[in-house]
Amino acid sequence: MTTLQTLVDELDIRHGLARFARILDHKQWDTLGEVFADDLDFDYGSGGEQHGLYALREQMRRYLDVCGGSQHLLGSIRIEVDGDRAVSHSYVQARHQGIDSQTGKFFDSNGRYIDHWQRRSQGWRIVRRDSTWYANAGDPAVIGMSGAGNTLDETAKLLAIREIETLKARYFRCMDSKDWTGLEAVFTPDVLTDFRESVQPHNESLLIEGAARYVAALAPILDPLSTVHHGHMAEIELTSATTATGIWAMEDKLWAPEGSGMPWRRLHGYGHYHERYEKRDGRWHISSIRLSRLRVDVEPSA
Predict the structure, then answer these.
(1) What pLDDT is recorded for position 59?
(2) What is the second-level CATH architecture of the domain 154-300?
């Protein structure tokens, strides 16, 4: 027997699905947490497992930031509620419009979401999503996927990779020489920077959106320090003519003078940068950057 509470829960979940569609179409990436749990797992139809709200956000931005207007329509929704857990099945139709060199083109996707929900303290949140895509139409280049007009020949690929390597070299130079204007120009204006793992314990305030905000937060920390940052063994993959991903082995050394307020005199760190790149107005920029640590050695302050 359906109870009043079940009806209320089903309505809340329907509202969550509708909210998700609006978030995508308005590109309100910082509000995805209103629908998804921080610890969610998902497979967006590629067969690859991904984890976490950050990864979902990057997945959405990878395809939707490079296209124009979009409209996501969810229908044929079926919801099964079991106490503080629920499963929803919904069909999705998504229209994506092209911009810039893709103006006048479109790409349509048709598929299904299976979402597992949990009642959390903030309300219902998706903790697991599985997507299946049944049919597509149009030019996939509209959303940055391989397609006509969006591929590179081998020479262009090598040149693009070289430009990205030069971009990363500029990142290191500007940071260590404290050229904050130059450093900000390395990024897209809406870059997502995640340095929560750069220190111990993890610092949630080091997840920052926006190049200007990031540099404004970083400069006062590094200005009193002497720093050396190195990047090695770049793994750069071009995902379209205007997007790419990269992983860099990294090493950083920081020296703090007396009276700096730092709890250490010297820090020597090792890890990897995980990055995404976009080509805007003919130039490559870092659109997201995350640092994962393997080891950090410190010499405490006296």
Answers:
(1) 85
(2) Roll (3.10)
Going by their DSSP bridges, the two strands 187-194 and 283-300 should be labelled as parallel
CA 274 to chain CA mean position, Å:
10
Indicate yes or no: pTM above 0.70: no
Q: Which residues pair with 81 in a beta bridge?
A: 86
Overall average pLDDT of the 136-152 stretch: 70
What ranges do the domains of the chain cover?
A: 4-143, 154-300
Return the amino acid letter for 184: E
For residues 183 and 171, give the distance between their C-alpha atoms in angstroms, rounded to a whole number.
Answer: 6
Tell me if 250 sits within 8 A of 233, measured CB to CB.
no
Q: How much is the average pLDDT of 217-242?
A: 92
Q: What is the mean pLDDT of residues 170-195?
A: 95
Q: Residue 198 pLDDT more than 70?
A: yes
Calculate the CA dihedral of residues 15, 21, 26, 27 and round it to 10 degrees.
110
Distance CA 278, CA 187 (A): 9
**Does domain 4-143 sit in CATH 3.10.450.50?**
yes
